[in-house]
Amino acid sequence: MLANEIFEQLKAEFGEAVIEYNDKQPADSYVVVSANGLFEICHRLRDKDDFLFDYLMSLSGMDLGENVGVVYHLYSMKHKHKLVLKVAVPKSDPKVPTVETIWRTADWHEREAFDLIGVHFEGHHNLIRILCPYDWEGHPLCKDYETPEFYHGMKVSY
Amino acid sequence: MGLLNKLDDPYEGGGIVLGKIEDLLNWGRSKSDWYLHFGLACCAIEFMAMNASHFDFMRFGTIPRASPRQADFIMVTGTVTFKMADRIKILYEQMSEPKYVISVGSCSNCGGPYWEHGYHVLKGVDRIIPVDVYIPGCPPRPEAFQEGMMLLQEKISHQAIFNKRKKLEAELEK
Predict the structure, then answer these.
(1) Are A97 and A121 in contact (CB under 8 A)?
(2) Domain boundaries, chain A
C-alpha cells in the first residue's frame, strides 16, 4: 500500500490527529501526526490487516529549532510497504507518548532520543540515559547545546 | 669466529657471567610483560591481528590478563570517552607497581578525529594516567605495535631498581 493511501485511511479514521501528508521529493514521503493521537495511530498501523507494520526500522529524535521531533520508520514484513511517521512537540514541553509497548525495539531507541535530544517519552518504563554517563548534563545533539568545560575534573576541550 | 662456534662455547670455557643483578632483573622484567588489554575501538581490532599468528604478540613474552592486579602494563587501544575514562583511572590504580601504559592510536594519544567537536571524548589518555609509550596511527599497523612493544622493553631494561634516588640525582645534575 502506498503512503498516500495509508494517509487517506488514517485521516478518515483519526481526523484531526493526522495533520499532514508530504511527498516532496527527494525525501521519502511522510505523514505528520499529533502527539496526542500517536499511540492509537501506531497501534492501528501495527494491527490492522491492511497495514501490518510489524517492524519499527528506526526511531530518531530531531532538533527542529523551536520544536523537537521524532521520526518513525515503519516496515511491514507481510505487505512489504514502508511508512515514515513524524511528530513534533514544543521544546518547552517535549512530551511524546511511548511506543515501546507496541514495538519492543523502541525501548532503547527512545532512550537514545531522550539522551541526545531530550524528548520525554511518557509511559516508558525505564527512561534513563543510554549513551552518555548517567550524571551527564544536557542533551548533546541539541543545536543550542554547549559543551561543558570539565567533566569529573577532566578538561573537555582540546 | 663464526656464530656456531660461539654457541658451542659461549663463555669461553668458564661457567661464570659477570654482570649486575639489576641488569638481570630488568632483563627478566622486560621480557615477560603481562598486560591488561583495554580495547575501546578499531585499534583493538588491529590488536587482534597483532595477537594472531602472523605477528604473534606473545613472542615478546606478553600474556593478556583479565585482571589489573596481575598486569605489568595496560594497553589503551582506542577512543577514550569520558564514560570510560573513569574506569581506566580505577583500573590503572588497581595495578601493582611497577606499572606502565601504552597508548595506542590517535584517539588515545590526543583525541584523534574527535579533537575539536567531540564533547564525549577525552583528548588523550595522558590527561588521566601517565603514558610510557605512544603508538601513532589510525589505527596503527601491527608493525607499529611491535615497535611500541620494543620501546617499552627498552625503557624497562634501563630502569633503576636499586639506588634510584642516587641515580636520579646524578641525572639531574647533568
Answers:
(1) yes
(2) 3-155
Give which of B120, B122, B125, B128 to mutate to test A binding, by max A Cβ within 10 Å.
B120
Element (H, E) at B166: helix B164-173
Q: Look at B85 and A132 and tell me if their CB atoms are within 8 Å.
A: no
A75 touches chain B (CB under 8 A): no
B140 prior amide bond cis, ω within 30: no
pLDDT digits (tens, 9 = 90+) for B123-136: 999 999 999 999 99
Question: How many angstroms separate the CA atoms of A74 and A84, rounded?
Answer: 6
- Predicted-complex ipTM score: 0.78
Given this structure, which CATH class describes domain A3-155?
alpha beta
| A140 touches B: beta carbon within 8 Å | yes
Q: Backbone phi, then psi, for A29, in 5-degree steps?
A: -70, 145
Q: Please judge whether B82 and A133 are an interchain contact, meaning their C-beta atoms are less than 8 angstroms apart.
A: yes
List chain B residues with CB under 8 Å of A158: 110-111, 115-116, 123
Residues of B in contact with A156 (CB under 8 A): 82, 119, 123
For the cut 70, the answer to whether the pLDDT of residue B10 exceeds it is no
The pLDDT profile of chain A, 158 residues, written as one tens digit per residue, is 888 899 999 999 988 889 989 888 888 899 999 999 899 999 999 999 989 999 999 999 999 989 999 999 999 999 999 999 999 999 999 999 999 999 999 999 999 999 999 999 999 999 999 999 999 988 999 998 988 899 988 888 88
Nearest to A81 by CA among A5, A22, A18: A5
